[in-house]
From TrEMBL:
InterPro entries: HATPase_C_sf, HATPase_dom, His_kinase_dom, HisK_dim/P_dom, HisK_dim/P_sf, MASE4, PAS-like_dom_sf, PAS_4. It comes from Paenibacillus phytorum. It is an enzyme of class 2 (transferase). Signal peptide: none annotated. PANTHER family: HISTIDINE KINASE 1, TWO-COMPONENT HISTIDINE KINASE. Keywords: ATP-binding, Kinase, Membrane, Nucleotide-binding, Phosphoprotein, Transferase, Transmembrane, Transmembrane helix, Two-component regulatory system. This is histidine kinase.
């Protein structure tokens, strides 16, 4: 097996151990306690307390120990599964422990008046910023590596080398950061003045760190769903790290109530993952003890059953028949070959997958002609395997069907050993259809691309303009302009997050609808008035004078029509007019939003209301968007027992038609 190839069997360890509901519930309680303590301290955060010299060393001595122990525990798990992502997690906690050590050594009046290593008044503050900024960034790197290299497992020797390189790299990084913050102490921007945080720290560093950490927490939880022991407690650690910085920002300086509470959050962030892993490790050890006893009992039972040979032979024959029927009903294509690669058995799924039968005695490599891997023809791998040039393997392959469609499969090949050690009876070849998984991967990649762009763009604007306001003297006119831009980009980011939350609530069935009798004409008139003049567009409502009533949730319907009108304006950049119609037709209320813009290609219509789908057109790509709006519209309207359709002509515009049920006025 290639040294970086995934092992066929899942390795049982703390990193991959699934969490159960009680474990997640306990982690939620711990997180809630941390949040509650932080919230209760908010009214008192700026109250200055006595400077307790022993408080910092007491807290950070435990923090440093916990961080290094956690790093060691994670490294021990890396030695088991040898995954690149776990190595990143090891580096994170090694970095956190090392930076915490340097932070307390350079903190004023702990070991020296201005801290050790000839530190300055800004040194420990900047180390604090680097430490808390590095935590969410490292978690983000961990997610990226986990996603990209999920099936990679290093060989033992390579894992050992990479572990050493990681250790050396982290130590050099900590050393370099310590040297910069101490040697260039007089050149460091001032983030702490007379024990108080400066605007640069609050707005230029602290708030972005809190925001980045919050986004990291949301993304990490959405990706993992706290499905493993490690991810469950990492969510709590990320939360505690975020609250640490948030409380510091509220406290405004050192030795305030907020400052002392923040140290508590540092303590929680440092020990929570370790505590969870040690607890689960103990449970795993007890379970292994039970399993060992079960194995011993099974061994005894096996020896008893072994003596009943005639009965066993009959049972084996029956089981062989069952296995053959199971193979026939399997969702995988399963083929058994002799030692030379000629087919002995193939289940019916083989013909279903590859559109032609596989005859007994046919060479496996001949049947695989036309199948491809990422780097070579698949039949070459099959020939090389049966010639014993390569070991058993697991490969992803693709082929074109008779209809011209591309199908994707995962193929695994393993030898079948004989009863005597070292003998070979044949080979087992299996194919699993993973076409749907490939489609999901494409959607996921598209999702990551969209989100990384849509979140990065407003964040860059917000951070950039805040930095300008915090570090430069600008005119009042420019200040107002910058603040307006920050507000606009914040709303954009908020709307993006709200879209995700709406979809999550709709998916989980937690979206509550408050239905009532609504005048559709009055509702649309109010909405249309709000869009008058936006982006040089005039919106005109066409409706009868008398009311038209529907049963619906007012807020959700407003969300639907604001979204459709916003899209109409967005995708008609060369036009200046939007028409909105409210009509009735045989007990149905038809609400039409018509634009005179780009129109929609015919091939895009069947995917238009799916999530994250955007028309692949350069004109539209420049406009941007996540591809969530129309899917939310569809979900909401269907919850109202209605439907939404589109009538469009490329280059002339589109009409989105929302159909609802008309009700009587009373």
């Amino acid at each position: 097996m290639n040294q970086d190839q995934a092992s066929p069997a899942t390795i049982y360890n703390l990193i991959t151990m699934k969490s159960n509901p009680s474990q997640r519930r306990f982690a939620f309680i711990i997180g809630a306690i941390v949040v509650l303590i932080s919230l209760l301290s908010v009214p008192f955060v700026r109250i200055q307390l006595v400077e307790l010299q022993a408080y910092q060393p007491a807290i950070f001595s435990t923090v440093i120990c916990f961080e290094f122990i956690t790093a060691y525990v994670i490294y021990s798990q890396f030695k088991i599964n040898r995954s690149p992502a776990v190595l990143v997690l090891f580096g994170l906690y090694l970095f956190s422990g090392g930076m915490s050590l340097v932070y307390i050594l350079t903190f004023p009046r702990v070991f020296a008046e201005n801290g050790l290593f000839h530190a300055g008044t800004q040194t420990s503050a900047w180390l604090y910023v680097i430490l808390h900024a590095g935590f969410p960034l490292a978690i983000t790197l961990y997610m990226m590596i986990e996603s990209k290299f999920a099936n990679v497992n290093y060989s033992a020797s390579k894992a050992k080398r990479l572990g050493l390189y990681t250790f050396i790299g982290v130590v050099l990084l900590i050393t370099g950061l310590t040297y910069i913050t101490t040697h260039f102490k007089n050149q460091l921007p001032i983030v702490l003045s007379q024990g108080k945080l400066t605007p640069l720290f609050i707005y230029g560093l602290g708030l972005p760190i809190v925001l980045i950490t919050l986004i990291t927490l949301i993304v990490y939880y959405k990706r993992t769903k706290a499905s493993t022991v490690t991810s469950t407690w990492l969510c709590v650690a990320i939360l505690a790290s975020m609250l640490d910085v948030a409380i510091i920002l509220c406290g405004g300086g050192r030795f305030s109530v907020g400052w002392y509470v923040a140290r508590w959050n540092t303590f929680v962030c440092a020990n929570i993952v370790l505590a969870g892993m040690i607890y689960e490790f103990t449970k795993m050890y007890l379970r292994m003890t039970e399993l060992f006893q079960q194995v011993k009992d099974s061994e005894y039972n096996y020896k008893v059953l072994l003596g009943e040979s005639q009965l066993a032979e009959r049972k084996i024959s029956e089981q062989s028949d069952i296995i053959e029927r199971m193979l026939e009903s399997s969702h995988e294509a399963i083929i058994m070959c002799d030692i030379e690669g000629r087919v002995i058995f193939a289940n019916r799924r083989v013909e279903h997958f590859f559109e032609r039968p596989l005859e007994s005695g046919e060479r496996m490599s001949s049947y695989c002609l036309g199948m491809k891997t990422a780097d070579a023809a698949f039949d070459e791998f099959i020939d090389a395997y049966f010639e014993q040039s390569i070991p058993p393997f697991r490969k992803r392959i693709s082929r074109l069907t008779l209809k011209g469609e591309t199908r994707h499969y995962e193929c695994y090949v393993n030898p079948i050993s004989g009863e005597m050690e070292g003998t070979l009876r044949g080979h087992l070849v299996g194919f699993r259809d993973r076409t749907e998984e490939e489609r999901i991967d494409e959607l996921k990649n598209e999702f990551v691309s969209i989100i990384s762009h849509e979140i990065r763009t407003p964040l860059s604007s917000i951070v950039g303009f805040i930095e300008i306001l915090a570090t430069r003297v600008v005119t009042e006119e420019k200040r107002a302009k910058y603040i307006e831009t920050i507000h606009k980009e914040s709303l954009r980011l908020s709307n993006l997050i709200n879209d995700f939350l709406d979809l999550q609530r709709l998916d989980s069935g937690r979206q509550e609808f408050h239905f009532q009798s609504l005048d559709a004409v009055l509702l649309l008139r109010e909405i249309v008035e709000q869009w008058q003049g936006k982006d040089n567009h005039e919106a005109e409502l066409h409706a009868a004078a008398e009311p038209i009533f529907v049963q619906g949730d007012e807020d959700r319907l407003k969300q639907v029509f604001h979204n459709l009108i916003s899209n109409a304006i967005k995708y008609s950049p060369g036009a200046t007019r939007i028409d909105v119609y409210v009509e009735t037709d045989n007990g149905k209320v038809l609400i039409k939003i018509q634009d005179y813009g780009l129109g929609i290609p015919a091939e895009a219509l069947d995917k238009l209301f799916t999530r994250f789908y955007r028309v692949d057109n350069s004109d539209r790509r420049k406009i941007g968007g996540t591809g969530l709006g129309l899917s939310i519209v569809k979900e909401i309207i269907e919850a109202h027992h209605g439907k939404v359709v589109v009538d469009t002509e490329l280059g002339k515009g589109s009409i989105f038609i929302v159909q609802l049920v008309e009700i009587d006025a009373d």
